[in-house]
Structure of Alpha/Beta hydrolase protein:
Amino acid sequence: MAATQTIQVPHLGGVKAGYAFANDRYEPSKPTCVLINSMCMTVSLYHDQFKCKALTDVMNLLAIEPLGHGSTSCATEHFTYWDSAIVALQVMDHFGIQKAFALGTSQGGWIVTRMALLAPDRILGLMPLGTSMDYESSDSRSKGCWDPAAHLTPFFEKWSTPTATPDFIVDDVWCGLVGGIGFGAGATAERSEFWTTTLKEVYKGDEGRKKVRMALACLLSRDGLLLRLGDIKCPVYWLQGTDDTPFGKVVPTEQIARFTSSKEAKLVFIEGGAHYLNVTNPQEVNDALLEMVTKYQ
């Protein structure tokens, strides 16, 4: 399901941002970690983190749905990952959270890194999961990363129409693609059913079509961050599954070395982990997050 709670923030003429706190509360005495979900997922992606008492005893967990996702909507049809980073920072503002750690899965990794670039004094540590800091360049593709344009552009073209589509509903092919790439061997009938139901609820009607179309446009046209990574000073704990289909192992190994100004930058491969690593390997992710927050809070 998508977030059941939203707040209004000012970016882009007004954004209604979907969010969820673990245990439905924010405790100012504890450090906070912001969680940003992967493509077409929602705050529900972080179910295993929200239910982990070892984490919630120590920190607040605040999941935020980026633009084009879940219950988040805005006054303008067009936006980028930089906009989603600004929205997440403004959600922090709303709750009086001056500083936070930030964890992002897949595209969430690109977004939280942008948060650290835009507000270096506010992000205490980064945990990218199953991601890449480049765009889908020819260099990254030559090193085993996927080519989303070849596979996903037909969806964008199908969803692009000047005619209103009140009966639109995202199809089973897209739902299966999102889940298959993300969960890999960790896909189950229960997960597939849950996320198919969720996606069909979020992406329906004319607004739903526009929403998923622009979410995909962000993916297909995003800018890379390689030249900017040396400006990040906070610690970076990057976790990557050995069975990550989109980004593999070569590119993360090269890119972690670009965090030259970080207090600590390390890459850990999780054996058998798939793309949505916090779901397929929650214990390893939870342990690493607890380590980072405990060390750098």
About this structure: The two ends are 31 Å apart (CA to CA).
